[in-house]
Amino acid sequence: MKAAFGATQRRLVQMLWLDPDETAYAAHIAVWTRWFLWVGAMMSLAIQPTFTFPQSIPQSTPFVILHLAAVTLNGWVHYRLVSRRRVTWRHVFVLGVLDLTFVTATVVDGGYDTFWFVGYYAALAAFAAVFTSPLLNLTWTTITASIYVGVSLAVGSGMALDGVDVKALYVRVVGMFGVVLAINFITRFQRHRARAAMERERALQRERLELSETIHDTIAQTAFMIGLGIDAAKRVAGGSNEELTARLDATSQLSRTAVWQLRHPIDMGRIFEGSGLGWTLDSHVATYRTITSMSAELTQNGVEPPLSIEVRSMLFSIAHNALANALRHAGASHVLVELDFGRDELRLSVSDDGVGLPHNYEERGHGFANMRAYAERLDGRLIVEPRGPLGGASVTCVMSLGRGQQEG
Questions:
Q1: Pairing relationship of beta strands 334-341 and 295-301 according to DSSP bridges
Q2: Based on the number of CB atoms within 10 Å of its own CB, is 296 exposed (0-12), middle (13-18) or buried (19 or more)?
Q3: Which segment of 183-192, 208-217, 287-296 scores lowest on mean pLDDT?
Q4: Which contiguous run of DSSP H or E holds residue 300?
Q5: 389-399 per-position pLDDT tens digit
Q6: What's the chain's Rg over C-alpha atoms?
Q7: What's the predicted TM-score (pTM) here?
């Protein structure tokens, strides 16, 4: 019994589950479609007040309540979309139920002869644009068609059971299924293409993970051992030869820089595996201490919200590049990475106690240009302080949390 219930639950989840981005996109279309129809209804009311509403106020009260409920709920869902809040299939399903109730109330008011039955087509189209399950769409369309047929036969004087009315009703019902099937085929085709692209991206991510593991097991370990050998040679040489000591120092620094650059794809793999930004940066900073023998720490304020892989990877790259600059150019002894999750924005800051930045730092290499490009892609901004809170350089990326939050 329990196994059967679990299987049924999983089947329902498979039928109703949608990718969050797909849900938001489809919900946008459905919301704007309702606004268009609502404006059209208001214009018809302004032109001819008796065109939409019945003349009897008591009879129109339930209709007005439904109308206001539909507008309010549609506005609420629209607000969630605009503010980048989570919109799930449940929101869309409730809107679909309200659409069906609202259109049915309109048809009940006007009877079989009213042309407002076309509202069923819009309601079904909005439903099919979100839910791609053929079984669910056919079931929903069958329920809608049954309600419409029942209303047509029962309300007012009803429809005449002659050939003309029966044929017209048949065409209307068949049209409902035609609209739903057409939209369902189109949306399923588009989503299959989108999911195929996602699968290709996931395959690339798996290749990156395998590559990072290979780098860690071979090149990075070799470079790290070379660095240890150079440091051992420095100790053996002592201070007897200043030129040799300087060359060994430069080579040791170059070795550390090479090992640190190799850590970027290695630790980036953790993000693609699903690790949070804070956890990944904490591990990255710990590795930085080991490689550079510098004092480095991460402080985090606030709770990390769900962030997309794209956002986490770009923020991680900004932090990595800033740490690389501190290693190569700052002559620093201490580095502080700060990660602040506010209510509406995220701040990532990397500060050191080194020599600061020269006036032409933007022209030296591609590090700052890359960090600025990442910040712009996040719809954020990069703030560079030649003399930050620790006395050396400070690099801060500020972005809206609404941009980066991952739904679902």
A1: parallel
A2: buried
A3: 208-217
A4: strand 295-301
A5: 888 889 999 98
A6: 31
A7: 0.53
